[in-house]
Structures are given as C-alpha cells and as structure tokens.
TrEMBL record:
GO cellular component, one term: extrinsic component of mitochondrial inner membrane
Protein name: Ubiquinone biosynthesis O-methyltransferase, mitochondrial
Topology of the protein relative to the lipid bilayer: Peripheral membrane protein
Subunit structure, interactors included: Component of a multi-subunit COQ enzyme complex, composed of at least COQ3, COQ4, COQ5, COQ6, COQ7 and COQ9.
Short name of one Pfam family: Methyltransf_23
UniProt binding sites for S-adenosyl-L-methionine: 64, 110, 131, 189
Species in which this protein is naturally found: Malassezia equina
UniProt keyword list: Magnesium, Membrane, Metal-binding, Methyltransferase, Mitochondrion, Mitochondrion inner membrane, S-adenosyl-L-methionine, Transferase, Ubiquinone biosynthesis
Binding residues annotated for Mg(2+), in chain numbering: 190, 193-194
Metabolic or biological pathway: Cofactor biosynthesis; ubiquinone biosynthesis
Amino acid sequence: MAVALGRSGALLRGAPRCAIYAVRYQHTASSVDPADIAHFSRLANEWWNEQGEFAPLHRMNRVRIEFMRQKLEEVRGWDAALADVCGAEHVPPPLPTPAFLTGQHMLDVGCGGGILAESAARLGARVTGVDASEENIRIASTHAAQDPAICLRAQGDVPGTADGSLLYVHSSAEALREAGHQFDIVTAMEVVEHVHRPDTFLRCLADLIKPGGHLFLSTMSRTALSYFLTIFMAEDVLRVVTPGTHRHSQYINPHEMVAFFRELGWIPTEQDVLAHRATLPDGSHVAPRPSRLQFETRGTMYVPMLGRWVLAPPMTADEAATHSPRPTWLPTWLGGGMRPTELCNYFFWIRRPFAT
C-alpha cells in the first residue's frame, strides 16, 4: 500500500507538469555516516559533469541498467513458465520493451545527483530517490526539472503519472522504513561501502522490499586489486577521485554479501528448495528453482581500450560458484575463493522470498 510522503522545502519553479519537493525526514539511522555525507555534499556540484569526479558512474550506468534488465527478465520468464505449467489463471506477461521498469515502484537509496534515478524513470519506473545529503537532493531535483520528459511527483501518487515519474527525498533509508514504505525494487549503487554500519543498512534495505521484490546493489570487493585501482591509482596517483572518498576496510566481498542474506533467511537450503517445489496438475513436482533465480553476484570492469564498463557474463550463482575455484594457498585479499571478474567492482541481486 502506498503511503503519502509529507513535504517541506521550496517548490522548484518551472517543474514540468507537476511539482517536485525535497521531502525531509529526521535522520535517526545509525548507518548514516556524517563524514561521508559531508564529503559527498562538498562534491554535489560535480554530479552532472560527465568528465569530472563522477565520470566513472556515468559510464557505469549503462551496465547497471543492463544487469537489472537481465535479472528482471530472467525472473519474469521463470515465473511465467511456472504459472503456465501449473495451470494458473494469470501468467505474468513478458517485461515491456524498451520501458522494462513500467509498473515498478523503485527506491534508489543514496541516489546522489540522480544518475540512476533519472534513467529508471525514463524506463517506466515510479522512482523515489533518497539521499542523506541535502545538497545531493538539491542538485538531483534541479537537474531533473530541466527535462520535460520526466514527470516530477509532489507528495504521494499524482493521477496519471504513476509510471515514468520521479520524486526526490532528503532522508535516510531507515526513516523511510519507520514510515512504513515498501517498494518493488530497491537499489543502492556504490553506497554500502560508505555507510557506518553495513549490516544495519542491509537489514534496513531488506525491510523496504515487498515480498517477491528485488534488491540490486553494486560495491567493491576487499582485495589488493580493488585497493590498487580505487584508492592508490584513482585517489593517490591520478587524482581523478577526491582522496578520502573510499575506505578499503568497508569493502564487502561477494561471499560475505551472500552469507549475510543466507543468515537473514533469504537464501534457502537445497533441502528447502526441493521440499517447497510447486506441484503440477498431475501431482508431480516442477524442477527446483535455480540458484541464479534466488541471488547472483556479477563482476563488472572498466576496459580503457573500449572506454566503457563491461558486464561479466552470467554464471551459476550458488555457493560453489561463489567460492570456487579456491586455491588454498592464496589468501582472500589476493582473490582466493573469488571469481577473477569480481576482484574489484561487482553487482549483487537478490529476490525477497514471498514468506520470510
């Protein structure tokens, strides 16, 4: 059930078709790191300079969208096939093309200047972008208001503008959870490595997702390669990223992310998958749901010769794939137990079970 958002702050003049407000919630969350918020607030004016501080995020946005499209399409296909063979009255239709996010209420946590949020709105989603930096929200709101193709929402849902619309909120994810909001899709791109308590933050994101909804994250592995590329080279040598932007100790390895959600109860055991299979009209059981339709980690890397980010090919997302091959002589910080494509940047997707 949609909950109307309270509003405050000045109306942005000239917003097309409908108004936009920077909605404020009290920041009561322990995961918000004041030092990181202050850091990104100082950089707020750089968000839409595609050759500046955030150029890597502009270039990465294409693979963010592609990863989301692939996972949603794969899950929708499985759901449709399962409904069909089980004789369900309603079979989920294929994803709309090209606006594949049509009908989805999406929350973009740590939206920054709105790079992903704007793209998602253009792809049909009803987007709420939230950031703990008021300066980021100001920049995001101003930029979106310049595009007449984006419908900017005021509070709650404006009739006729549910799909392909955008609302920015100056808040924390925890405050939205306390207000009772839930979403079909929650994204937090390059955010989890900047929060004060990653475990608290991830639990909050989990609570913000409707049963059957989707969580998309991108972050970095805690390896020697990620330190070399994201801190030593990007911050200390090339200075293309402001020094102090990243803290290597807060990076999270893929198997740690998987272990967290396994402990949360979102990743069933093999026995549970077999025990809870759907039954066909003839009384037999359908094939078990593949692990890659429960969760997946997928690497992405920047290829200088191509001048763009490349998404690694999909692989089986089970525990063995997350940990193998695993040279026992190679420590984790050198990549032991990790796929070569996930030694630095990677995406993570998981679907919330319908009953947890």
